[in-house]
Amino acid sequence: MKKHNLLHISIATLFGFAALSTNSAAQQQNLKEQLVGAWTLVSSDLIDKDGTKAPDFGTNPKGIMIFDATGKYAQILGQANRPKLKASENLRRDTPATEYGEAARGYAAAFGTWSVHEADKTLIRRIEGALIPNAEGREAKATVSVASGEMKLSVTTSNGQKVEQVWKR
């Protein structure tokens, strides 16, 4: 075999091994590393104890969840196409409480810290601030899976309902 052909085969082999090691390194990321970044809401469904499934924020919800590498997160999600508020100046201060309440009912927002329990694929969010003050100071635990740029979260609430969400990169 000629020397230059052997050199080309050697170089091609090295590139092949480099690609394989890069792919295996990406596949070997731990769950925390896989979650870091921004996610866009695809769906959020409520499932009753009897198995009845209904959209939690309508059929076309909007939302974003951001996990940073230092353990902070922010999450905002809600219904698309909510009615506009009637006030014209300072919307937050001038909107009547009932109208503001209805607008808030179709939305959820929280921020705080996060961690994962690798062994049982659990995401733990410690809520520092939220649209609903009762959530502040609580922990929200969800089973989580990540595959092909999609994150699935499943939470069982205290009343036995399940919330299942799908997020994408």
Brief synopsis:
By secondary structure, the chain is α+β, with helices and mostly antiparallel strands.
List the helices and strands and how they pair.
Layout lengths: L2 H25 L3 H5 L1 E11 L5 E3 L6 E6 L4 E7 L12 H4 L2 H9 L1 E11 L4 E9 L8 E9 L2 E7 L5 E7 L1
Antiparallel strand pairs: 1-2, 1-3, 1-9, 3-4, 4-5, 5-6, 6-7, 7-8, 8-9
Please explain how this structure is put together:
It contains four helices and nine strands. By secondary structure, the chain is of the alpha+beta class. The protein folds into two domains: 1-29; 36-168, Lipocalin.
Largest sheet: 8 strands, antiparallel, barrel
CATH top level of the largest domain is Mainly Beta
The overall pLDDT average reads: 87
Distance between the termini: 48 Å
Number of strands: 9
Named CATH architecture of the largest domain: Beta Barrel
Strand content: 35-45%
Number of helices: 4
* Apparent shape: globular
CATH topology of the largest domain: Lipocalin
Q: Major sheet: order of its strands?
A: 1-3-4-5-6-7-8-9
Query: How many domain modules?
Result: 2
Judged by helices, strands and strand pairing, the structural class is alpha+beta
Question: Helical residue percent?
Answer: 25-40%
Cα-based radius of gyration, to the nearest Å = 22 Å
Following the backbone from N to C, one meets helices and strands in this order, namely HHEEEEHHEEEEE
> Which residue ranges are poorly predicted, with pLDDT under 50 across at least 5 consecutive positions?
10-15, 17-26
